[in-house]
Specification:
The chain is of the alpha+beta class and 164 residues long. The chain is built from three helices and seven strands, in the order αβββββββαα. The strands form two sheets. Strands 1-2-3-6-7 form a five-stranded antiparallel β-sheet. A two-stranded antiparallel ribbon has the order 4-5. It starts with 28 loop residues before the first helix and ends with a helix.
């Protein structure tokens, strides 16, 4: 099943998500992971959070260097040796909007997989960036808030011109 992507000003994007409950699942976790993956592939993304699909659950899917990761109830920590890296980001919920965002290049993540098994990973480079972007979604934080107002306004203006 392919979900409809929520965009720009949808309130669900700015609302922190609820923990996924493996003891009393809100939805079958394997089905949810498969549907998120199918949606991500359909729209050409490298990551997608459940709330981008209208589901207020703390879950995201990402394409990582080691394959597809389904991350339920993720918790990120910036690694002690992390250096900030500036890189252009886009977002499926903000089509045609691209901005340089500074994020740590090394993070640790604890999460549960789609079967509820506890997992830990050290993520670097693009994988670290994707996980941080998706965890921001789960916390109700837009990538547009990670840049200055001036940079955001310039990017929005560029997007408007591109759409005309």
């Amino acid at each position: 099943m392919i979900y409809e992507i929520r965009t720009d000003n949808d309130p669900i994007l700015l609302t922190p998500t609820e923990e996924f409950n493996f003891d009393n699942p809100q939805i079958d976790p394997i089905e949810l992971a498969n549907n998120l993956l199918e949606t991500m592939r359909e729209v050409g993304g490298v990551g997608i959070a459940a709330n981008q699909c209208g589901l207020p659950l703390r879950v995201f899917i990402m394409a990582s260097e080691s394959g597809i990761l389904a991350c339920f109830n993720p918790r990120l920590r910036v690694h002690a040796d992390a250096e900030p890296i500036s890189h252009e980001e886009g977002c499926l919920s903000y089509p045609d909007l691209f901005m340089k965002v500074v994020r740590p290049g090394l993070v640790e993540i604890d999460f549960q997989d789609e079967r509820g098994n506890a997992r830990y990973m050290l993520l670097t480079a693009l994988d670290a960036r994707i996980a941080q972007h998706e965890c921001d979604h789960l916390d109700g934080v837009s990538f547009t808030s990670r840049v200055s107002k001036l940079k955001r306004d310039m990017a929005m203006k560029k997007r408007s011109k591109a759409r005309d």
